[in-house]
Each structure stands twice: as C-alpha cells, then as structure tokens.
Amino acid sequence: MSDTVQKPLPEMSQVAKPFWEAAREGRFILQKCAACGKHVFFPRIRCPHCSSDQLDWVDASGRGTVYSYTVVVNNAPSAFINDMPYVVAIIQLDEGVRLLSNIVDCDPAEIRCEMPVEVIFEKLDEQFSLPKFKPLT
Q1: pTM recorded for the entire structure
Q2: Half-sphere exposure of 63 toward its Cβ, with a 13 Å CA cutoff?
Q3: What local confidence, expressed as pLDDT, does residue 2 receive?
Q4: How far apart are CA 134 and CA 106, in angstroms?
Q5: Which end of the chain is more exposed for a tag (fewer CB within 10 A), N or C?
Q6: What domains are there in the chain, each with its CATH number?
C-alpha cells in the first residue's frame, strides 16, 4: 500500500507563499514585525505580539535546538511507512520562535532535548522543498 499512497504536500496560502518560495531556493526565512521587532512563525497577516500588520520577511539563521520530540515507530498504513522510524520535533529557533519539523541524518536514539540543530531542505517536487533539521556538527 505504501507504494501507491502519496505523501501530502503543504498548502501554499498567499500569506505563506514567500516562505515556500524561499525554501524551494534553499533559503530559510521568517517574518519579523517592524513594529515590535519580534520574529513570527507560522506565517500570518498580523503580529501575534502587538497586532501590527507590518510583517517583513527576513533571512533566518536556520539554527536552533530541539525543544521536544517523538520517534514514530508505527504509522501503518500510511504514506510514511517507508520512513519509519522517523522523528517529529518542535525546534526552538535561535530567533525565538518554534516550529514543527523532522530531525534527519542521525540515529533517533541519539536525539536529546536542547540538542543543537540546523536546517536542511528536502526537495519534494518542483514547487516544494521541506525544511528539516539535522544535528549541528
């Protein structure tokens, strides 16, 4: 069954379009509020801190630490069965925001909270590349 089930693609809203376009180019960007100076993730039309609509897209470091994670060892039947075991993690970015992603390029047993990580991109198709994270070496 896993050979016929396609993994879902992200939905590209107008608000998130710059994020996905940058990811496709291998760049990691975040919104930053011009009014209060705080970074924002997930893409929004207003700052969740001060309600300003002055959100700009800025280059981000792509570095952070593992805030929390889980190792998925049983997800059948699904399009992700060939990926198991895989790690789903909340990444605390250096810019102060958190995002949900995968940790790759390491043994899941080696992952720890507060472990430093950096972004890499996995190309899905011509439109989407997913930001994922690997241990910082």
Answers
A1: 0.91
A2: 5
A3: 40
A4: 7
A5: C
A6: 17-135 (2.40.50.840)
